[in-house]
Amino acid sequence: MSVSPYPCLNPNSYTGSQREDILRLNKLLCTPAYKILGNVPPSFLIRTYDLGYTFYQAGDYAKAEALFRCLTLLDHLTVKYWKALGACQQMQGKLQDAIHSYIVAFAGANDDVDLFLHLSECAIAVENFKGARMAVAHLLKLTKGKPEHEALFHRAEALMEALQKKDNENSSADKAQA
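Given the sequence above, the corresponding C-alpha cells read:
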C-alpha cells in the first residue's frame, strides 16, 4: 500500500468504497505521472533532462526551464528535476518561483548542501531574511566538520554573519525611529 504524503488521505480513516478510492488516490500521488501514462519510456526522461542541461549550460534558461518543468510534471518525485527547475528560475531572476522549486526539492533531499546554498541566496535576494537564516543554519549543520565541504562551511558562516549584521542594522534603525 502506498503511504500518502497527505494526512487527510489516510486510508484507515475511511471505509468501504471511500477507502478504496483513497487507496487509488494515494497510489496516484505516490506514482510518477510517466508511469501512469505508460507510454513515456524512462529513456525519454533522461534525454529530456540532458537537453535541458545543455540549454542551461548554454545560458538559454527559458528553454531549460520549460523542459525541467515538464519533467517535474512527469516525475514529481525526482529531486534533480526540481533542483534544475529552481536553478533556471534563479538564473532568470524568478526568485520566488526558485524558492518554491527548491523547497519541493528539499522534501526529497534534506541533506543536499547545494540546495540550501541556493535557497539561502534566493531568500536573501527577496529580503526574506528569516527564511535565509533557516537555510543557512541548516547548511552550517550539514557542512560543519566535513572536510569535503570546508569551503562551503566558511561561505555559510560568512552568510550568517552578514544576516546577523543585517538584523543588528534593522534593530538599530527600529530603535532610532522609536
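The mean pLDDT is 86. Try to locate this feature in the C-alpha cell string yourself.
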